[in-house]
Design goal:
The protein has 771 residues and is of the alpha/beta class. It contains 19 helices and 38 strands. α4 packs parallel to α7. The strands form 8 sheets. Strands 1, 2, 3, 4, 5, 6, 7 and 8 form an 8-stranded mixed sheet that branches. The protein has an 8-stranded parallel barrel with strand order 9-10-15-16-17-18-19-20, surrounded by 5 helices.
């Protein structure tokens, strides 16, 4: 289905067939991702044949040499002899440790004069150079060749990470190896393996066998919303699994061969339901045995910080973990640890008094600092989510900044290392596009484009402070990703963007050039049988205000797509109107669009419902400005005729965090108003709650306003509504007004059952409709 469209690009896949070529093949433009530091293409080629030798100069390069042989054979069906030698022969691929003045991950690659010379100062550099070498491979009329090039390359960041959660849904050894293959292909060097959580413990600890006998299995697969979408089935049987220590050793060796370091995550002090199911004495006083969760959310279960037994248990667990993982870093979680149990636990309160701590936040700092001292004594470093900043950061800890960039900034300013992994745009469990019944969390606009445009080093940092940003990472949480095919579809093609921002300097990044390199990579993924997401083909429908008219624009993330659309709600086909330039919305309409290659539809159908009403395109004035991260289409987003979707917190919604909402709309003249309504998103999992109160007011002069509608939302907030849209509506008004003012207050703190308890919730507002 996707082969034809790639033939419209100059950059083709690995197995391109061109007709009528009788002369020396002319190489296509090289499309390496991530983009090298320096690259000069020569236009020459190096032909490959079964007489081509792979020569390596040092025994430490043996794995890389045979890896290269196997990859080339899989692609070309040719056989290649591998030789350990120190000579430089023509017509050979030569791997060497001869490069000087380069770090261990850098390499130099030269393809010229019918030979390829790849050199580095360490095996890691040679392995990364092989990934670039393979991406120069092209074929014409069954002639396989490397495109001639000179490359000098090395990474921007030392931490280039990708995370996978195997607690919520479990994936076996072969799948984990495949995941590591994906990282290695694109020069990512850290696999952050999230092994424990409320939904299951996934690693064998021999001193504590109940962790896997009981803690690795929940009553059923759970996560009912997945079944509602048809993503998987719940057969009611126990669900789970774990990795034996022998399997872990096998996976670690597999990763090491491919220049990938595995950083294990053992959650503490929160996310402990699976542990407390197996060993309930580690809980606070009066809590008892926990049940393993089969849904998302944040459990109140935590380790008791007042019991010495807790720290003895964790040190024993970590001793076994350290034997399995040679990584310098051990991730201890540290996030989302509610303090409810500690507040009521006599032993925890005694610990606070004994250690002269101010409160439960400092108790968490004590907990983390104590574990850090243990790890430091073993010559390891502690890394944790940015909540470890609360109550004071442990002396040598590295911070993983996920709740935006503030945690990373705070760490760097205090001269602590930081890894930047903000939820926007680096949580790959969030769908890149708004499609119903798709795996993953709802869309947050974490697309190829937004990932690529993310700059890991915050502008707020000085040159010295910036040095403490050691890298960048994306995360894949699997609550709503039950099957391996879903993992692949959410990982790719966004992993390509991650690879480039992690490896390539900011000065070398070029999004238009990057877009043109994607089709070649998709051809590689097709050859490998990867179920990558088709979001690059998906049509994004947007609206902009021009001269008081709403103009509809359409685009895809891949260039050169042919877009066809309808305005009457019918499904577009190959005969539908082709999109050329933005067009105006002059009436209420349902626009649907899709990308096509001839008669073949390449994407799912995108749609945009436009409602023309009295406020559309009129002047409006905000009392408080929306958060720019959730701009809902900009200053006219609340009266642009579009409605926010439950499937996305990025599409159509304007978000207000620290302020109340008030906007005044000037209708231009005094007219008869019959109805007024406004939409509010409720999604408590995203800290978005209903307003406390909504008020509609009208005025003839813009100064003296009369309240015509008021609704108080006094429903109990402990109902934990998953998501919905509230749309208060004033009907049968029949009043004269020129100005309409909408107010919404949201000062009530998030309730105690929520992980954000005590803080101010978000307020999300969409279309204000006046008729």
């Amino acid at each position: 289905m996707y082969e034809n469209i790639r033939n419209s690009f100059v950059i083709l896949g690995l197995l391109i067939i061109l007709s009528g070529c009788t002369e020396e093949p002319v190489p296509n433009k090289i499309s390496i991702i991530p983009r090298p530091v320096k690259m000069v293409e020569s236009g020459q080629i190096m032909r490959l044949s079964s007489s081509t030798k792979i020569i390596y100069s040092d025994s430490s390069l043996s794995f890389s040499a045979y890896f290269l042989r196997d990859q080339l054979t899989a692609i070309t069906n040719l056989t290649f002899e591998v030789i350990e030698d120190f000579s430089n022969r023509p017509g050979a691929i030569y791997l060497s440790l001869g490069a000087k003045n380069t770090d261990q991950e850098s390499y130099i690659l030269s393809i010229a004069d019918q030979k390829a010379i790849l050199s580095a100062s360490a095996p890691q550099g040679v392995f990364y150079g092989i990934q670039s070498l393979l991406q120069t491979l092209q074929s014409v009329n069954e002639v396989h060749f490397f495109a001639g090039v000179e490359i000098e390359d090395g990474p921007r960041f030392s931490w280039r990470g990708m995370h996978l959660d195997v607690s919520r849904h479990f994936f076996g050894v072969e799948k984990i190896k495949r995941y590591i293959d994906y990282l290695a292909m694109y020069k990512l060097n850290i696999f952050h393996w999230h092994l424990t959580d409320d939904q299951g413990w996934r690693i064998e600890i021999k001193q504590y066998p109940l962790l896997t006998e009981q803690g690795a299995w929940r009553k059923s697969v759970g996560f009912a919303s997945n079944q509602a979408k048809g993503l998987n089935k719940d057969d009611g049987k126990p669900y789970g699994g774990f990795y034996t220590q022998e399997e872990v050793k096998e996976i670690v060796r597999y990763a090491q061969d491919r220049a990938v370091t595995i950083v294990p995550e053992i959650e503490m002090p929160g996310h402990t339901s699976a542990v407390l199911k197996a060993y309930p004495t580690l809980a606070c006083e009066g809590i008892g045995r926990a049940e393993i969760w089969g849904e998302g959310g944040i459990s109140k279960n935590v380790f008791c910080a007042g019991k010495e037994e807790t720290f003895e248990f964790l040190e024993n667990v970590l001793n076994e973990v350290l034997e399995l993982f040679p990584s310098n870093y051990i991730h201890i979680g540290g996030d989302e640890a509610p303090k409810d149990h500690w507040e009521k636990c006599g032993l925890c309160q005694k610990r606070i008094r004994t250690e002269q701590l101010a409160d439960e936040h400092e108790l968490q700092s004590y907990f983390i600092t104590r574990m850090e001292k243990f790890l430091n004594a073993k010559d390891r470093k502690l890394i944790g989510w940015d909540e470890i900043l609360e109550g004071g950061l442990a002396p040598n800890a590295t911070v993983m900044s996920w709740r935006g960039i503030a945690g990373g900034i705070a760490a760097a300013k205090s001269h602590h290392d930081a890894v930047m992994t903000p939820g926007f745009p680096l949580y790959f469990n969030h769908r890149p596009i708004d499609l119903k019944n798709s795996p993953g969390h709802k869309s947050s606009n974490n697309t190829i484009t937004t990932v690529y445009n993310y700059e890991p080093v915050p502008a707020e940092l000085s040159a010295v402070e910036s040095q403490y940003v050691i890298g960048v990472q994306a995360n894949l949480w699997t609550e709503y990703i039950p099957e391996w095919e879903h993992v692949e579809s959410l990982l790719f093609p966004r992993l390509l963007s991650l690879a480039e921002i992690a490896w390539t300097s900011a000065e070398r990044k070029d999004f238009e050039d990057f877009r043109n390199r994607i089709p070649y990579q998709l051809s590689n993924l097709d050859r490998m049988g990867v179920n990558y997401g088709k979001d690059p083909y998906q049509v994004a429908i947007s609206m902009q205000m021009e001269n008081r008219k709403q103009m509809v624009s359409m685009a895809t993330e891949l260039p050169g797509m042919k877009i066809r659309y309808t305005e009457d709600g019918s499904t577009p086909n190959s005969s539908s109107q082709e999109y050329q330039t933005p067009f105006p919305c002059v009436k209420t309409m349902l626009v649907k669009a899709a990308a096509f290659d001839g008669d073949i539809r390449l994407s799912e159908v995108s749609e945009m419902n436009y409602l023309s009403h009295l406020a559309t395109g009129k002047n409006l004035e905000y009392q408080n400005v929306y958060n720019p991260k959730y701009n809902g289409g900009g200053d006219f987003g609340l009266i642009d005729g579009r409605f926010g979707s439950e499937e996305s917190i990025s599409f159509g919604w304007q978000g207000f965090d620290a302020t109340d909402f008030q906007v005044s709309i000037d209708l231009g003249e005094e007219i008869n108003v019959k109805t007024i309504s406004a939409g509010f998103l409720i999604d408590q999992s995203q800290w978005i709650f209903q307003p406390d109160e909504v008020t509609f007011e009208i005025s003839s002069n813009g100064k003296d306003f009369e309240t015509i509608f008021q609704k108080v939302y006094d429903e109990a907030r402990d109902q934990q509504v998953v998501q919905m849209i509230a749309r208060p509506r004033a009907e049968e008004l029949n009043v004269k007004a020129r100005y309409v003012r909408v107010k919404a207050f949201h000062g009530t703190p998030i309730p105690s059952w929520h992980s954000g308890a005590g803080t101010r919730p978000w307020l999300f507002v969409d279309e204000i409709v006046i008729e």
